[in-house]
């Protein structure tokens, strides 16, 4: 295979590929060759899920004109892509996931690293036949594709986060180790590797010596969406959890932690190309409800937000220093959208515990979904009170929660500061240089 380094060489002719094995069809290759000729870089947004985006507010207007934007999505996504979203992209490549697709895939996994992304390696290999490496950008659009993309970047020598960069931020036992070494407060934690076949007695002793008190919290070391998490109220719960997990066919790794009480919050940040970072917003749940309680205890998750400057000068004093301490310790790769999640001690508001972090906006906010699908009201883009509105929360399979939203004033935060537009803009625009005015 020839990897082209000269853009002029790349545009001379389309590569000859066996159509029976090629991911790219003739129209794909012709469109991409035109982009190679016209654009300084081409960014590919990679999707595993069978949808693209609901809305991309402001992306079309703010996208740099010298950058091509292409989506790589399953063929099933064609059914749901709106003309407005489609117009944000210079081209969309569709792939066949019929042999690997699983409904509610997250419920079948024990690790985010086991996601099937059919033909992706072949796709990138074909791209490198006619796109120079320095013009090719891969953008993940989901937590579950980060590891796949980082491995492909590493394999082909592409820019961006590689396997170690993902592992350092997303593998929970490493997060604990790095935080402790950096003097960042984090819950007392014990790593349990069931694949190493420890005895039940060994696990119980290890956990009770380190964590000591109940309740405890358990979570897989490399998962998302609260999948596999549990709150253990007492020794009986702990023993039951150990027995159940040891009996599973597929062994996995878990973190057992002390149950930290406080205000659960997330900070959304854009890591800029010049190494600086721009904080956007601090998010927490109404009435200080934790994401776990909202998901599994029939609580009503309703996210609230403050602009970062308002947060540090009000409810979250010292949050800027905490964010800087975390960034210094974990050294995330720029440019990226980035978040850190933690708990604020309600008795000492300047005392923050780190929980997790990652190359994506935080999850846990389904308020906007409820409003958008019922009345096309974008909760994160409007300033208005809403009350006595009954809605159904169905993001978790087989679970329906009915609730009434109390009157709450939603901060005016433009959606594109929190959705994937921020990712794309920060990655594509080389002129930000420490400033982000979206």
Automatic annotation (TrEMBL):
Molecular function via GO: ATP binding; D-alanine-D-alanine ligase activity; metal ion binding
Pfam families membership: Dala_Dala_lig_C
Domain of life: Eukaryota
Residue stretches making up the ATP-grasp domain: 176-394
Coiled-coil zones: none
Gene3D superfamilies: ATP-grasp fold, B domain (3.30.470.20)
Key words, A-Z: ATP-binding, Ligase, Nucleotide-binding
InterPro entries: ATP-grasp, Dala_Dala_lig_C
Name of the protein this chain belongs to: ATP-grasp domain-containing protein
């Amino acid at each position: 295979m020839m990897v082209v380094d000269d853009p002029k060489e790349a545009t001379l002719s389309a590569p000859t590929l066996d159509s029976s094995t090629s991911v790219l069809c003739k129209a794909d290759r012709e469109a991409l060759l035109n982009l190679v000729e016209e654009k300084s870089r081409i960014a590919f947004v990679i999707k595993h899920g069978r949808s693209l985006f609901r809305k991309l507010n402001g992306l079309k207007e703010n996208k740099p004109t010298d950058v091509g934007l292409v989506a790589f999505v399953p063929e099933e996504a064609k059914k749901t892509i709106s003309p407005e979203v489609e117009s944000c992209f210079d081209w969309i490549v569709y792939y066949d996931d019929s042999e690997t697709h699983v409904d509610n895939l997250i419920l079948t996994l024990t690790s985010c690293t086991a996601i099937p992304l059919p033909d992706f390696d072949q796709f990138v290999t074909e791209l490198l036949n006619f796109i120079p490496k320095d013009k090719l950008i891969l953008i993940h659009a989901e937590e579950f594709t980060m590891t796949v993309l980082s491995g492909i970047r590493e394999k082909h020598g592409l820019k961006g986060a590689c396997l170690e960069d993902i592992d350092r931020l997303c593998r929970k036992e490493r997060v604990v180790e790095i935080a402790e070494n950096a003097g960042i407060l984090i819950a007392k934690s014990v790593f349990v590797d069931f694949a190493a076949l420890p005895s039940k007695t060994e696990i119980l002793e290890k956990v009770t010596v380190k964590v000591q008190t109940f309740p405890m919290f358990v979570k897989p070391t490399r998962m998302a969406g609260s999948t596999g998490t549990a709150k253990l109220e007492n020794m009986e719960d702990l023993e039951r959890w150990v027995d159940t997990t040891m009996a599973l066919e597929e062994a996995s790794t878990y973190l057992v932690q002390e149950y930290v009480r406080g205000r659960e919050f997330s900070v959304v940040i854009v890591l800029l190309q010049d190494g600086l970072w721009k904080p956007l917003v601090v998010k927490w749940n109404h009435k200080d409800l934790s994401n776990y309680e909202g998901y599994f205890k029939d609580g009503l998750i309703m996210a609230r937000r403050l602009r970062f400057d308002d947060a540090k000068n009000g409810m979250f004093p010292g949050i800027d220093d905490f964010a800087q301490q975390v960034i210094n310790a974990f050294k995330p790769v720029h440019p990226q959208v980035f978040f850190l999640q933690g708990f604020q001690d309600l008795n000492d508001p300047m005392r923050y515990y780190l929980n997790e972090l990652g190359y994506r906006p935080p999850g846990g906010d389904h308020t906007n979904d409820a409003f958008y699908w019922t009345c096309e009201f974008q909760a994160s883009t409007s300033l208005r009170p809403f009350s006595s509105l009954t809605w159904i929360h169905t993001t978790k399979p087989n679970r329906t929660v009915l609730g009434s939203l109390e009157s709450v004033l939603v901060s005016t935060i433009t959606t594109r500061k929190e959705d994937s537009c921020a990712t794309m803009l920060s990655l594509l625009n080389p002129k930000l240089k420490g400033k982000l005015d979206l």
